[in-house]
Design goal:
With 546 residues, the protein is mainly α. It has 2 domains: 366 residues, no CATH class; 161 residues. Helix content is 58%, strand content 6%. It is built from 24 helices and 7 strands.
């Protein structure tokens, strides 16, 4: 049985996938830019669009290759620079990723499994949320799927092209060809009896060159970046945060556990992997007396090599342990699991439907623990609340000097991000921890209002609420801090809340200081500092639960 009675051309399937992507993401297409979009990728693409510079001018360069930014600049030159154009362009990338996964899955399994894997991948919360965002990780995953399909088809030149494009999208895409080359070289060393089952064959010289080509391409980019900036791997702060600060054995071990969870259990992915584990004890289904075939063990070993390489590498590097970094791996896990359901259960279609429902639930329901807002529709809530707060600031003159933290500092100073019509003068703090707010209280003369917001998701009843040791570990190794709630922040700064909104574990507030300035006249800086501390101490449990 096949999904379609006749083969559809790739362009038709791409059009179908893109149409579905646009329909399912339609309410999100006009949203302003979020977090890293606003902080780096959109400014970098805008610089390229306006000046032709491959190196960002309005943000410190982090040495990410420029392919996605060039892609967006081309769309903007053709259709305009509005968020809806950007998000539609990224949905085309998402559809291209799903098409690549479909081709790869059809080649290693069958059409039924392939379409089921595509549906589950499209519904997976992190993939869905990233599909319309101007980040680079999903684009790198898309090109990796196409490259792996070419590799398994033994097309050396095509493999080199796709992997080279992938590393020009994001530098970490070099992990996949490295893993494939490493496994292909390691396999012949294994005992002959096992070798015949787990190896795809001897790595030809042409294919080895194809897998080495992306490294050469990435080296050329880094050489160009060094010639323009004097830095190879991005600005010193970026390198320190993502490489130097992560080189601790305990942190690597903790990050490894988090990466394994993201690859196999995060945001209801455990529903699929648990079903797969349970069905592994069942006998394969027989059709007309013939067992349904599995994905070849040798192919599964290739997938495993890529997964292990990504999990390990992303545990060692990367200051933020973001789930989007694992997008090249999770669809491969989904594919293998769906294939197992098909092979071992006659009710596999119903099980896949249940998994898709579970993924959809993860898209709209936040987990009972901290997670990145960009991994499901929590990012939509963030954007809308920040829009409302920015509109309040614009609608209530006089125009204010605003105390805030990143990324709101960019939202208020760059109108093209979609939050304000004119830039606000901003005084920036690192975050809204107690220490930062006490320090900010000494700068009262420099701002007239404060734009405060939750910098992370705060579950009402966290599974880890009583684990103080885990909070200490996060603070030490992962840059964690606790935001002061808006009421306590207003007391600490001596202002009053004039706008406040909460939604599903997030909040935003605007604080004004007209009366505070008069009350603080004549007080010394040390007096202001001590008064702020006393206000914070006034409420014993001002920290929100985490």
């Amino acid at each position: 049985m096949t999904v379609f009675k006749r083969a559809w051309p790739s362009w038709a399937i791409f059009g179908l996938l893109l149409g579905v992507e646009i329909l399912t993401h339609y309410p999100l297409l006009k949203l302003p830019y979020f977090w890293d979009e606003a902080g780096y990728y959109i400014p970098a693409a805008r610089d390229l669009w306006q000046t032709g510079s491959l190196i960002p001018l309005s943000a410190p360069s982090n040495a990410h290759p420029p392919l996605v930014m060039a892609y967006l600049a081309l769309w903007w030159r053709t259709a305009g620079t509005s968020p809806i154009v950007t998000r539609t362009a990224m949905l085309a990338v998402s559809a291209f990723a799903l098409l690549g996964l479909l081709k790869l899955a059809t080649r290693v399994a069958n059409q039924q499994v392939a379409w089921a894997a595509v549906v589950c991948t499209a519904a997976y919360p992190a993939f869905f949320a990233q599909s319309s965002m101007a980040n680079v990780d999903l684009a790198a995953a898309a090109l990796t799927f196409w490259a792996m399909d070419a590799f398994i088809s033994d097309k050396a030149i095509v493999t080199a092209i796709w992997f080279s494009l992938a590393v020009l999208t994001k530098e970490t895409a070099v992990i996949a060809p490295g893993a494939l080359a490493g496994w292909s070289l390691l396999c012949p060393i294994i005992s002959r009896q096992r070798r015949e089952r787990i190896c795809c064959g001897k790595l030809r010289g042409a294919m080895f060159a194809a897998l080495a080509a992306p490294l050469a391409v990435l080296s050329c980019w880094y050489a160009y970046h060094f010639s323009k900036t004097g830095y190879v791997f991005g600005n010193p702060e970026f390198f320190r945060y993502n490489v130097q600060a992560t080189m601790s054995p305990l942190r690597i071990a903790l990050a490894l556990g988090m990466r394994i969870w993201q690859a196999f259990g995060y945001l209801h992915l455990f529903v699929l992997t648990a079903l797969t584990g349970c069905l592994m004890t069942a006998a394969p289904v027989r059709d007309d007396g013939v067992e349904r075939p599995r994905i070849a063990i040798a192919t599964q070993c290739l997938f495993a090599a890529v997964a292990v390489a990504y999990i390990t590498a992303m545990a060692v590097i990367g200051g933020a342990v973001l789930a989007r970094y694992m997008l090249p791996v999770v669809p491969l896990v989904i594919l293998v699991c769906v294939s197992t359901l098909w092979r071992r259960s006659r009710y596999w279609a119903a099980l896949v439907g249940g998994v898709a429902v579970a993924f959809t639930g993860g898209l709209v329901m936040n987990p009972p623990y901290g997670f990145a807002l960009e991994d499901n529709l929590a990012y939509r809530d963030y954007i809308r609340m920040h829009q409302h707060a920015a509109l309040y600031l614009e609608a209530h003159p006089p125009r204010s000097r605003v105390l805030t933290a990143w990324p709101a500092s960019d939202e208020l100073t760059r109108p093209y991000l979609g939050y304000v019509t004119r830039p606000f003068p901003v005084v920036r703090v690192e975050d809204f921890s107690a220490e930062q707010l006490v320090n900010a209280s000494q700068l009262q003369s420099q701002y007239d209002a404060a734009f405060l917001f939750s910098t992370k998701y705060e579950p009402r009843h966290s599974l880890l609420a009583g684990w103080s040791w885990w909070r200490n570990v996060k603070e030490h190794y992962f840059g964690y801090h606790e935001d002061v709630d808006p009421e306590s922040a207003a007391r600490a700064l001596g202002g009053r809340i004039v706008f406040h909104e909460r939604c599903a574990g997030q909040w935003v507030a605007v604080i004004r200081f007209e009366q505070h300035e008069e009350a603080m006249d004549g007080k010394s800086d040390s007096g202001r500092h001590e008064m702020a501390r006393m206000r914070l101490d006034y409420q014993p449990n001002f920290f929100p639960g985490n």
